Amino acid sequence: MQAAKPTTPMPLIALVLGFFMVIIDVTIVNVALPSIQINLNASVSGLQWIVDGYTLTFASLLLSAGNLGDRFGAKIAYICGLAIFVLSSLGCGLANTFVLLTVFRLLQGVGAAFLVPTSLALINSSYENKKDRAQAIGIWAAVGGIAAASGPLIGAALTASFGWRAVFFVNIPVGIIGILLTMKYITNPFSIAKHGFDIHGQILAIVGIAALAFGLIEAGRLGWMSALVISAFIIFLMSFIAFLAVEQRTILPMLPLSLFQSKTFSTAIAIGMILNIGFYGELFILPLYFQQIREYSVLMTGLAILPLPGFVALASYIAGRIASITGPRLPMIAGLIIGGIGFFALLIVGRHAPSYLLLALPLAAIGFGTAFTMPAATIAVINAAPKDQAGIASGALNASRQVGSLIGVAIFGTIITTSANFIFGMQITLLIGGCIFLIGALVTAVFLQETHSN
User: Which CATH number does the domain housing residue 139 bear?
Assistant: First the structure.
């Protein structure tokens, strides 16, 4: 049974509301981190867990959440995702310790993992006409860009006006509206997937990613040679090896390893991770820099960071148009070079930089370069994968990006914690960001092959 063609924009509104919350919660919290640090007496490693707790469950469950949506119905899974997100946001807003806040951020990530793949699946089933469907997906993607760009400014405004808890409470009315609209306007018959659920692969993915996050974050507090940190890295390595073995042998793996036989697919997946390591790693550092070092207010910090995500929508649109003409290789190389230059140019940071403009331009270059690369990388992944595995390929790219965010926040935060002073540590993170972006450009130039849609 096919869903009737919607006569109103209400189905799309219902579906983009969930995606908007998922993306904005990656950036809206960052500006509030200094306030959270003071109010909850959290260390830098505590702040890392508040950010990475969300990313950890989001990344590790992303591939399986789509599978569960297929098994029990995308509409049911989407509503469950919204409900989890609303309840966990309430918990975040009421939390009185950073440990409780981290626990509820973990639950937020669970909700987010269900919202992304199911919202796309429901768009696909709600819009029969190919042109309408493409337009709806374009709007869905644009909303993600707007959410990423507006997160720091909205977070700053809410924190300055109502306190840091407001950045979580704001999700509650949005999520409730999303649930009501979905129940009324989304039609999706109950369906059972024809394939199984890779429970062993899922467990190993969660254990491995959690161990990696623990090792990278706690190294700043306990030291790299701590028994707990070393044990965490050993658990990560063992989980990773076991995951590869399980995915190789299971009949229906959550991540078919055959996809990585394509150099183009492997390169694009690696680039997705590199982008998020640099972009979100630095986005974690910047609010601390502007508020603690340059002594900006919360609202001024939101405005100061705005150039970083401010060009996401524009750059994504331009890159998509160029990639459709030249293929993904050229815009990926160009975007990575622009972003890399931005990281190196930002090395002028200090307590008293000559002019904010000297910081704004490099921030804009990093944001533009990242956003310019990502659509082309997505196209490369989809084109390199067999048609019947396009969904899994897209999920793999999104998962690699979220793991990149987790690694970036963990490593950059640990560098700040263990450095002699904040500025020196920040400059090291900028050097790392610039180097991995330029290495990414070189890898793309050497290994990425132009492909055509399957």
Answer: 1.20.1250.20
**Reported pTM:** 0.83
Q: Are residues 210 and 277 in the same domain?
A: no
Domain with 131, as residue range(s), is 1-192
- Tell me the torsion sign for CA atoms 415, 416, 421, 427: positive
106 & 229 share domain: no
- pLDDT, tens digit, 9 for 90 and up, residues 301-324: 888 988 887 777 788 778 878 887
- The domain total for the chain is 3
Cβ neighbours of 370 (radius 10 Å): 28
Radius of gyration of the chain (CA): 21
Q: Decide: residue 79, CB within 10 A, 0-12 exposed, 13-18 middle, 19+ buried.
A: buried
- Determine the Cα–Cα distance for residues 279 and 404; give it in Å rounded to an integer: 9
Do 321 and 421 fall into the same domain? yes
Judge contact between 395 and 297, C-beta under 8 A. Answer: no
Give the tens place of pLDDT for each residue, 346-370.
988 766 666 788 889 999 999 999 9
Quick check: 304 and 362 in contact, CB under 8 A? no
Q: What is the 3-state secondary structure (H, E, C) of 108-136?
A: HHHHHHHHHHHHHHHHHHHCCCHHHHHHH
The helix/strand/coil state of 306 is coil
Which whole-number Å values give the CA distances from 443 to 142, 370, 440, in the listed order? 28, 16, 5
Print the SS3 string covering 364-375: HHHHHHHHHHHH
The pLDDT of residue 393 is 79
- Using CA atoms, how far residue 299 sits from 148, 166, 169, 296, 304, in Å, is 17, 14, 18, 8, 9
